[in-house]
Write a structure and sequence with these properties.
By secondary structure, the chain is mainly alpha-helical. The chain has a single domain (2-115), classed as Four Helix Bundle (Hemerythrin (Met), subunit A). The chain has helices spanning 2-8, 11-21, 23-45, 51-71, 74-88, 92-115.
């Protein structure tokens, strides 16, 4: 499981962030990201196939991909990049099909962050 976690999260990047911002600030950022990503998961789950909403959804996916990249949560970032590409090509069905994979990756990443005391259970 530890080697899988290394692919999910770039702990070197997170360590640098902790050194720059301090542990408390890093935990706060991760907590904010948790809210952001779980909001995105809800947004995708409840998505109505309206073109304007689809553009908003693409923007939300892009934002969360950037946030995960900044925090070194690589597995989530990679999955969101896949979903964003699908969304930009208008493939809404595939975006929804990939949601369960995003949720699996996020659960594994959360477990790794909890083990490292970077997130509350």
């Amino acid at each position: 499981m530890e080697s899988q976690n290394l692919n999910l999260i770039n702990f070197d990047q997170l360590s640098e962030l902790q050194q720059q911002l301090g542990s408390d600030s890093t935990v706060i950022l991760i907590d904010r990201f948790k809210l952001e990503l779980e909001g995105l998961i809800s947004q995708i789950s409840n998505f109505e196939k309206d073109q304007d909403d689809f553009e908003t959804l693409i923007g939300s996916i892009h934002k969360s991909a950037g946030s995960s990249a900044a925090l070194g949560i690589s597995g989530v970032q990679q999955q969101l990049n896949i979903m964003e590409t699908m969304a930009k090509t208008g493939n809404a069905t595939e975006v929804f099909n990939e949601l369960s994979r995003l949720m699996e990756i996020w659960q594994a990443a959360k477990a790794a962050l909890i083990i490292k005391s970077l997130m509350q259970p």
